[in-house]
Each structure stands twice: as structure tokens, then as C-alpha cells.
Design brief:
coiled coil; alpha+beta; single chain; four-stranded mixed sheet; 767 residues; WG_beta_rep
Length: 767
């Protein structure tokens, strides 16, 4: 529901139409009550506020710009902006929309302070949105300029997306109820009903009623009456009326003279301030030239021998440490390759033994089962090659990677680099912005909207600490398998299909050999255990060939039946048809028709799909688990799915219900906790409820085997879930480290006092 109070009609039709569009967008959002104030004059002679939106958890000042096009911002806080190559100023006496917001925010806060208690509203958190009427394109200086703006200031191309933006700007510092809004709206309408009507003519000024001067005089009188009514409603009834008493003409003339004098002083002060600004700019330019000259002289100066030697020594130590880590990685890769080769050899031995048993000539007898079908089946089944076995025990069908997985989440703000490990890598900062509307990153930023539209953006700094797994040998991709849904060079372009893929766009059926390789991991363990028994069986077959040949054939037949029976347990894999993506079973038969712009592999029975530019989840039967309505989504982990709306993050419960809170950043749930970031810093949640006084960290990462890596003001350390309940218990046995990586295989690499080493879960150094 929207409560409306329009203090006075807008003098120009463009702003009136834009205000009507703002009202329509708020009325379409039935989930939250709003109070919309329009054309509000808070002081006589001051420029009116275009619009103010008051919600239970937000007070937002709107600056309406009934235009659109190419926007340029040479400077944020002073000077005019550029729109389509022409100057874009703010309202009356304002250089630009940001300057208008900054000054009117202070006026609005002073006006609201008698109305609300500090517990109801912290007026420092009044936000501002510049609403343009038409779409925008940003120049190269826009993002850099907006990075200097406070977190509560944003730009919006069109009022249709305003409700979602207001939900992103919601803050617990504003805590009003629906009853508060309704009561305030009733009071505003009551005083509006008692305010004097606007004059319809201007005879006192000597102007014709239909001239622009008369219209302006009438509007000014009307706005003045509204302002006086507001002033009386706030309890300032002791202020004398503006009407001139009888016989006070001389006093009125003196007041007019004083007003003229004050206006001259104001103009003089503005001229002085402008001159001072120019002088400051001149001094700043001179300072920049001096700095450039000093840098040039410093570059030409000879290096200090002692410092250069120390730097060279430190560089050598870092190089040696890097070489040692690379050697460890190569050793791990070699060990993995050796294990794969050993498993491949065992599989080959098993295949050869089966072939030998099947090839033993035996005269048929009525009592023995016919071995011919078993031999035929064994002959038709392709043997696994060393290359396939050594490369990967998983299916050789390479599924496409959905863009939601590629760019879904970013890394934490100012995350200190961690020591490279074979199991973890340092998080790298990244910012995801909307393609058609780049939104600046805010100063401090894991942050649901009802059915949000795709391709959304939020002016928050989406900085997100997701530890990246170290690179492992990639599985070979079958020549006929579809590749990633977006090419690596340009995620917006679909990846080229394989040369062997039919030109008609029909789905390609994976061959049986590829599926047998996919079951290699399962067959390896069974084959290794069966080799000794099959060797004994072969020895017995030489002594009693007729009796045991049937048993050997039965073993082969059971193995083939087991393999084909487990084909149905493989999750569907993506396939491409006519430029769209769907899912097919192990036989290549479509089970989910090709209807998605991109499709990710199934994970835990769910897969990320893209439709109409938004992302959601489907199950293996093609049923929609989460509708395609998010800018990015991860499958459910720990009972919750992480989603991104623009640059804000939240979570979904099993039923698809969004959390009530949004975060600047967030990690997936792991071991019952998820690390999230809001304006206070990083902390942990264990469900939809956010703790009132959480333990705050500089950085926080996911729990692994009961331990989580965090950064405190004095360095990195590791904590258990008990620390969240009682921080006074401390972090022993772990100390403070300059750098740290997550635990893997019971060990973690840390750097302390300039020395890098491994520790175990007891905090002891691993020799």
C-alpha cells in the first residue's frame, strides 16, 4: 500500500509525469507499505524536494531527472555533470544532482528530527537515488567518480526498478512500523486539508493571470502556505504570520532592503567561495606537478646499497620458497599420475584375463551353459585404455559451465594474499557490475526480492572471499561432447560445438566406450579385488575347463549387467540442440528438452540453468526447484542456496523462501555456518536469523573439518564454532600469522615472523 502526500503540483509536466511513474512502481510492489511525499517545501525560499519515500526500514530522498542518455561526471561534489554532451545541473542553486542530494538530505534530517526518536530512525542513514526517466550509458569517468560517493547514494535508469533498489537500501538503523506510516500520512493529509487554497489569480502583482510571472507568483504563494502549515504542524505556532500588520509598511520596506542586502552578501560570498575553489585547484595542480618532478628525480637517483641488498636477499628467499612449492605440486601430480597408471594396469590385466577365459575352446555339453553370448558380449565391450584410465575416473562427457558458476560470486574486500598451496589459492578481488548499467562499488559491503527481474544491479561493493581450489589435471573431453555454454574469451558468445557434432543440432549420443570409462572409478576397486580370485579361477580352468568355463562366462555376464544397470544412476548431462541447452541420459536420449541459454552439470541432484538472462535450479526430472529469477545462484549446500541479486547476496531455504537479510558478500554454508559481510564486517550465521551482536572479523572463511580461517586486527588465526559463542575462550592452540591458508589433509601453511611453514590441527609445526 502507498500513502501519498503531494504538497503542491509540480510546475513542469515532465517531473509530474516522472513522479506519477514513481508512484505506479511503488503501488505495484504490494509486499511493503510506503509513504510517498512529493514536491515538498521545507523552508521558505528553498528549492522543493522532488520526492521522499519512507518505508519501515528506509528513508530515501529522490532527485528526479526527466531525461536520459550518455552520462559523464567530471567531478562528483562540485561542478555540473554532462548528459548527452550538455551540462546537467541539479535543482535551484545546485551544481549537480549529488550536491542537491547532499544539501537536501541535511534539510530533510533537520525536519524529521522532531518527528522520530533516535530509536525509530538514525537520520544519518537517509539514502538518495537519482532517478532518470530514460536509460543511461556511462562514460569512463562515472564509475571512478561514484566510488567517492557514500554507500547510500545511487543512480537509477527508470523508476520501474525502484522498489527492488529500495529493498537493497533497507537498513536496521531505520525501524518504523506500518502503523507509524499510516499515522503520519493521516496527519499530513489533515494539515493539507486545513491549509489555505492556492490563489487562482495574481492581481496584487499587477500581472495578468495567464502570464508565466503570475503562475510563478501563485505557485510561490501556494508553496509558502503549505510550508507554514507544515511548520505549524511541527509545533512552531509561536512563529509570527507573514502577513504585514496594519501600519507596518515602513517596517516592511526596511525588511525588503535588508533582504536585498543579504542577497548581495550571499552573492558576494558565493563569488568568494568560487575564487577560493579556483585558488585551491591551482595549488592542487602545482602540487601534482611537484610530486611528478620528485618522482622523476627519485627514479634517477642511485639505489641505496644496503636496501638494495636486503631486497635482493628477500627476493631470493621468496623465489626459493616458490620453487619448493612448485616442486611439491609437481610431486603431487606425479604421484597422482602413477596411481592412475597403476589402476589402469589392473584394469587391463582384468580385461586380458576375461578375454583369455572367454577364448578357451571347449566342446559343448548339455549340462554346461552356453558361453557364446558371454564371449560375444566380452568381445563387443571396449577395453579401457591407459589414457582414459589415467586421465580421470569420471565420465568423459564435458558439460557446459553456466555463466552463473563462472561469475556468480566475487572475493573479499582487501583480502590479504594467502600462501599458494596445492589445495588452496589466495582469493583475488573482483567486482561484478551490470552490463547496461555499471554500478559503483560502495565503501563497505553478502546481501530477497519478490520475483526479481533478471540482469539486475545493486550499488554495493560485491567483494566476496571464496577460496579457490588449486588446479588439478583436467579430465579429457570427448570430441563429440558439448563444451562450455560460454566461451572463455567472451562469456557472452556461445561456445562453438564440436567438429563431430551433427550440423542439424540433434543431440549427440555418447558411445558405450565413453560410459565404460565413466564407470572406471567404480570398476577399478572391484577389478583390483577380483584379480587374485580370477587368477585362481584361470588356474582351475586349465585343470577343469568344461566346468569352470561356464562360471567364467557367468562372471563376465554379471560384470556387464552390473555396468549397464549402473548407467541409470548417472545424472543427466548437458547437450546442445539448435543453440539451446538441455539434458540427456547416458544413452544420449534427451530427458530435459533443450530450452536453456546455458546449463551447468548436476550437483547433488540439482543443476544451475539460465533462462531469459536469469538463473535458477532444476532437478534431474526437469522440475523447477528455484525459478530463473536471480543474477547468480549456487546449488543447495548445508540446506541453503546462495543467490546474488545485482551485487547483493542472500540465501534460499529448502522451500525457496529468501532470507530477510541481504549482505554485501557471503560464502556458502559449510558445517552449519556461513560467513557473511555487512556494514559491520565479516561474521557467521547458522540459519535465516542474523545475530544481534555477532563476533566481527576482518575476514572470515568457511569451516573445514571443524576449523575456520579468520583475520583479526592482529593477524590471521583459526577458530572453532565454540569461539563464536564465547570469544573470550581465545584461539589457542593457534597463534597469529601474517598469512595463512585453509587446512587440507590435516595441514595448513602459515607465515609467522617472515617464515613460512606447515602446522597441524593442534597448532604444532609439521617438520
Amino acid at each position: 500500500m502507498v500513502h501519498l502526500f503531494l504538497a503542491a503540483p509540480f510546475p513542469d509536466t515532465a517531473r509530474a509525469a516522472q513522479f506519477a511513474a514513481v508512484r505506479a512502481s511503488l503501488e505495484a510492489d504490494t509486499a511493503t507499505e510506503s509513504l510517498l511525499l512529493g514536491n515538498l517545501v521545507l523552508e521558505d525560499g528553498a528549492a522543493p524536494l522532488d520526492a521522499v519515500v519512507v518505508r519501515p526500514h528506509g528513508i530515501t530522498l529522490l532527485v528526479l531527472v526527466p531525461r536520459g542518455g550518455a552520462l559523464g561526471i567530471p567531478a562528483l561534489g562540485y561542478g555540473g555533470w554532462q548528459l548527452n554532451g550538455e551540462p546537467l545541473a541539479g535543482g535551484e542553486d545546485f551544481d549537480n544532482p549529488f550536491e542537491q542530494f547532499r544539501q537536501q538530505k541535511a534539510t530533510l534530517a533537520a525536519w524529521l528530527r522532531p518527528r522520530f526518536t533516535p530509536a525509530q530512525a538514525n537520520l544519518q542513514f537517509i539514502s538518495g537515488v537519482v532517478v532518470f526517466e530514460a536509460p543511461l550509458t556511462f562514460g569512463p569517468d562515472v564509475e571512478a567518480a561514484l566510488n567517492e560517493a557514500p554507500a547510500g547514494f545511487q543512480l537509477l535508469a527508470g523508476p520501474a526498478d525502484l522498489p527492488r533498489r529500495l529493498r537493497q537500501l533497507a537498513t536496521p538503523e531505520i525501524d518504523l512500523t506500518a502503523a507509524d506510516l499510516a499515522e503520519w500520512a493521516a496527519e499530513l493529509n489533515d494539515f493539507a486539508a486545513t491549509a489555505p487554497p492556492a490563489p487562482t489569480a495574481a492581481p496584487a502583482t499587477g500581472l495578468a493571470a495567464d502570464t508565466p510571472e503570475a503562475v510563478a507568483a501563485a505557485a510561490g504563494s501556494f508553496l509558502g502556505g503549505k510550508a507554514r502549515a507544515l511548520w505549524g504542524w511541527l509545533g512552531a505556532n509561536d512563529v509570527p504570520d507573514d502577513d504585514v500588520p496594519y501600519g507596518a509598511a515602513a517596517a516592511l520596506m526596511a525588511s525588503n532592503e535588508e533582504k536585498k542586502h543579504l542577497e548581495q552578501l550571499r552573492q558576494q560570498m558565493q563569488a568568494d567561495v568560487q575564487a577560493q575553489l579556483q585558488a585551491l585547484e591551482t595549488r592542487e595542480a602545482e602540487r601534482e606537478r611537484s610530486i611528478a618532478q620528485l618522482r622523476a628525480e627519485l627514479a634517477q637517483a642511485p639505489p641505496v646499497a644496503a636496501e638494495a641488498t636486503a631486497l635482493v636477499s628477500r627476493l631470493g628467499a621468496e623465489t626459493r620458497e616458490k620453487a619448493a612449492l612448485e616442486a611439491e605440486m609437481e610431486a603431487s601430480k606425479a604421484e597422482l599420475a602413477a596411481r592412475n597408471q597403476e589402476l589402469d594396469a589392473k584394469i587391463q590385466q582384468l580385461s586380458q584375463l576375461i578375454g583369455q577365459l572367454s577364448a578357451v575352446p571347449v566342446a559343448p555339453t548339455p549340462a554346461a551353459p552356453a558361453p557364446a553370448p558371454a564371449r560375444e558380449a566380452a568381445a563387443e565391450a571396449p577395453e579401457p585404455t591407459a589414457t582414459a584410465a589415467a586421465a580421470s575416473p569420471v565420465a568423459a562427457i564435458a558439460p557446459p559451465v553456466a555463466p552463473a558458476v563462472v561469475e556468480a560470486f566475487a572475493t573479499p574486500l582487501a583480502a590479504a594474499p594467502t600462501i599458494p598451496e596445492t589445495t588452496a589459492a589466495a582469493p583475488a578481488p573482483a567486482v561484478a557490475t551490470k552490463q547496461d548499467q555499471p554500478v559503483p562499488a560502495a565503501a563497505t559491503s553478502s546481501a530477497p526480492l519478490a520475483a526479481p527481474a533478471p540482469n539486475r544491479a545493486v550499488a554495493l561493493e560485491a567483494l566476496f572471499p571464496t577460496p579457490v581450489a588449486a588446479a588439478t589435471p583436467a579430465a579429457p573431453v570427448a570430441a563429440s561432447a558439448p563444451t562450455s555454454g560460454r566461451s572463455a574469451a567472451n562469456p557472452a558468445e556461445p561456445a562453438a560445438t564440436s567438429a563431430e557434432q551433427p550440423a542439424t543440432g540433434a543431440p549427440t549420443a555418447p558411445p558405450v566406450a565413453e560410459h565404460l570409462r565413466a564407470f572406471g572409478a567404480r570398476a577399478q576397486a572391484a577389478g583390483a579385488a577380483a584379480v587374485p580370485h580370477l587368477q585362481k579361477l584361470a588356474a582351475a580352468a586349465r585343470a577343469r575347463p568344461r566346468v569352470l568355463l561356464g562360471a567364467a562366462g557367468a562372471v563376465v555376464l554379471l560384470l556387464v549387467v552390473w555396468l549397464f544397470s549402473h548407467r541409470t544412476s548417472i545424472a543427466p548431462v548437458p547437450y546442445q540442440e539448435n543453440g539451446r541447452w538441455g539434458y540427456a541420459n547416458a544413452s544420449g536420449e534427451p530427458v530435459i528438452k533443450a530450452q536453456f541459454a546455458s546449463a551447468a552439470p548436476f550437483e547433488g541432484g540439482q543443476a544451475v540453468v539460465e533462462k531469459d538472462g536469469a538463473f535458477g535450479l532444476v532437478d534431474e526430472a526437469g522440475k523447477q526447484v528455484v525459478g530463473a529469477a536471480y543474477d547468480a545462484i549456487n546449488p543447495y549446500r548445508g540446506g541453503y542456496a546462495r543467490v546474488r541479486v545485482g551485487e547483493a547476496y542472500t540465501f534460499l531455504e529448502e522451500g525457496g523462501q529468501e532470507f530477510d537479510h541481504y549482505f554485501f558478500n557471503a560464502l556458502d554454508f559449510a558445517e552449519g555456518h556461513a560467513a557473511v559481510l555487512d556494514h559491520r564486517g565479516w561474521f557467521y550465521i547458522n540459519g535465516p536469523e542474523v545475530p544481534e551482536k555477532p563476533v566481527i572479523f576482518k575476514e572470515a572463511y568457511s569451516f573445514v573439518d571443524g576449523l575456520a580461517r579468520v583475520r583479526l586486527p592482529d593477524g590471521y588465526t583459526f577458530i572453532t564454532p565454540d569461539y563464536l559463542a564465547d570469544p573470550a575462550s581465545g584461539t589457542k592452540p593457534f597463534g597469529r600469522y601474517q598469512l595463512a591458508a585453509d587446512f587440507s589433509n590435516g595441514k595448513a601453511r602459515v607465515t609467522q615472523n617472515g617464515r613460512s611453514f606447515l602446522i597441524d590441527k593442534d597448532g604444532e609445526e609439521v617438520k
